[in-house]
Amino acid sequence: MMKILHTSDWHLGQSLHQYDRTYEHECFLEWLLDTLVSESVDVLVIAGDIFDNSNPSASAQALLYRFLTEARRKVAHLNIVMTAGNHDSPGRLEAPSPFLSLFDAHVVGQVSCSADGISLDRLVLPPKGQDGAIGAWCIAMPFLRPSDVPRVEDAADPYAEGIESLYRQAIQYAKDKREAGQ
Q1: For the chain, what percent of residues have pLDDT higher than 70?
Q2: Which of 12, 21, 23, 17 is nearest to 48 (CA)?
């Protein structure tokens, strides 16, 4: 059985009434790192609002990447799934994806489309267990902007029905991929 730790809303780089919260963020990330190790977590899900704004400072970005590097160093089998929230820049979050994928970190900033429609393989990810086998299927859905969702013609609320359609497709895709024991 896989151990999944779900977290969100880190808001790295945030200040509160002009008070820099870097120390608080560092303490949180240290606690999280200790928890990943002590619980032998298989998958860390960071579900949006990783940064406090769409143009995070270099120090906020460095804090994230130092944490991810240390997490993967201390928990060698750790899968990392990050999705963009409404505070994050989808493109900025996805920019280091090729590098992050080298150590099983997946970043989904926005929904991508191809000629065949929505690229569900980018949204439905196969985290692996300590044995290297796929242990589950994770739907990594970012914050959905109107341009991310399929257009549902003649809908009372095209955006809401587009979101429902997208989730329905992702769930079906995951079910189709799932094998016994996953």
Answers
A1: 99
A2: 12
